[in-house]
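Slide 14.
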Amino acid sequence: MQTAAPANPLLSSLLFDWDRIKERLSETLRFGNYLLNPLKRFTRKNKRPILQYAPEDTLVLRTLADLLKEDIAPCLSKRCTHLKGNGGTKGAVFQGLPKQP
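Slide 15: predicted structure.
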């Protein structure tokens, strides 16, 4: 039985080779030797470029962000409304409004 093509072929390559990739990633991260790959550049129909991380890099960056989240939270401003728990879009709008008397 054939399945539909994956929405993100780059990500599917990571999933299909996960056992091999997991071993290599674990080793390079453990020894501090991981290097990010060059960004891939795509051009939209409107000619605007898109830069995309390799799937492995996305996984590594996301994992590091999750691991460091609690350690760096005290150092981040509450005005960073793009961070979870800091008000989101509504918070940004209210910060920009003048104070009511």
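Speaker note: DSSP finds four helices and two strands in the chain.
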